[in-house]
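GNAT family N-acetyltransferase, pasting as requested.
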Amino acid sequence: MDPVTLETDRLVLRAFTSADVDAVYEACQDEEIQFYTPVPVPYRRADAEKRIGEELPAGWSTDKSYTFGAFRKDSGALVGSYCLFVVMPGVWEIGYWAVKAQRGHGYSVEAARALCDWGWATLDVHRIEWWAMVGNIGSRAVAEKLGFTVEGTLRNRGIANDGKPHDWWIGGLLKP
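Structure tokens follow.
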């Protein structure tokens, strides 16, 4: 699929471009993003270049993942990254991170809701899953505001960037 653009009242969601490399690089210097999301540590500018220039376009072209940058309409500032990627037929996972300065304004709920609505309307989806490391209360709050049901905690599900296993929450949202 070719990248598409989504709009909400306050945001434009679009595919990242090379013009966004610096903003992504700066955002991914945040310790919380580095701890709670699977980004390289340390996060270098070359990591942002590869992600935006190679990995994200490959997701769109293979129809395996669709990643949008969310940008404020009023300032053009990067709010965060929001993606849907296929887990198995009919099941997709949502993933997101938000720029530290943009947290607490409802932008992530707005962006993720637009993404889920687009997924229901466009993709063959009957369930969207959300996963987050236990302790990532911001991610959980967004998921719960979107209507995800937290279905459980998986003990020692994954190794974080600190090299240690951590428990993870899992949630699901069924097609309305």
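Note for the archive: The chain has a mean pLDDT of 97.
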